[in-house]
Design goal:
alpha+beta, about 25% helix, globular, three-stranded antiparallel sheet, five-stranded antiparallel sheet, about 180 residues
């Protein structure tokens, strides 16, 4: 090092973005229905409300009782349209009984990033619109019973996306 050269600790460093905290999610058995709807509040609310009714009837027929968690997965966000997977995490034996319009699968799994701590439906759909097309291109939310029994306005809940896609989303910070 030359005498006129600043020490490494004195050099200005370019700002580094803080690391984005990820949470590892394990896929849980899940029964769901698929709904295609517009992006208007009334269309999304109607689709979710109807899906909850179908799933409640399915659980009732199996004697499974009410679910204590609702998962809404937003896929294929297009201008004016979105595909919803609306479902309940369930025991594997309940998932095995899925038939007709009720499908069985798993909740999203892997490293996830919270890109919105909660907000309006329009903000949730905006996040989905920023994601590239593809299998992992989803954003999702979970709701507790007080938020979805009955479903009224879209409740505020954290919005999660796969960590591999989080860099593509403009993160919304609370003001």
């Amino acid at each position: 090092m030359r005498p006129d050269q600043p020490a490494a600790s004195e050099r200005s460093m370019p700002p580094v973005a803080p690391p984005v905290p990820t949470t590892d999610h394990h896929g849980r058995p899940f029964v769901y229905v698929v709904r295609f709807c517009g992006t208007e509040r009334s269309s999304v609310a109607s689709a979710i409300r109807q899906a909850i009714g179908v799933l409640d009837n399915f659980l009732e027929r199996l004697g499974a009782g009410e679910s204590h968690e609702l998962v809404v997965i937003y896929r294929n966000r297009l201008p004016g349209a979105v595909t919803l997977q609306v479902g309940f995490p369930v025991a594997p034996r309940i998932a095995d009984a899925a038939a007709g319009e009720v499908f069985a699968g798993f909740t999203p799994a892997g490293p996830m990033v919270e890109v919105l701590p909660g907000g309006e439906l329009e903000e949730v759909l905006d996040i989905g619109a920023q994601l590239p097309e593809g299998h992992a291109s989803v954003c999702w939310q979970t709701f507790r019973p007080a938020d979805f029994r009955p479903w009224r306005e879209h409740p505020s809940a954290a919005v999660l996306v796969p960590a591999e896609l989080a860099g593509r989303v403009t993160r919304h910070n609370p003001s």
